[in-house]
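Comment thread on ticket #2218

A.B. wrote:
> Attaching the input chain for the structure job we discussed in standup.
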Amino acid sequence: MAIEINDTNFEEVVLKSTKPVLVDFWAEWCGPCRMVGPVVEEMSKEFEGKAIIGKLNVDFNPKVSMDYGIMSIPALLFFKDGKVVDKQVGAVPKHVLVNKLEAQLA
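C.D. wrote:
> Ran it. Output below, let me know if you need it in another format.
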């Protein structure tokens, strides 16, 4: 299951991670977010032990959302060594996200 990321645990879970991290910025009212959500959950199982997969609700965590300039959701940010290395805005097929995350594992 994807980890719940918030303003409080973001630094510990994402920025200090020794593994690549995928953060799904989403909100309950966002239709495309509901399409991406199940894909993110599947990926959390498939990449268990290799990468951290988390979800951050923008409605409840404005600090991190503002810090990373999230203007449109879903926004999926890929982190490696505490830095954003890739991103995807909008709903896309699963293989697009998998390819982006696998690139960070190489």
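A.B. wrote:
> Thanks. Noting for the ticket: The CA atoms of residues 2 and 35 lie 15 Å apart.
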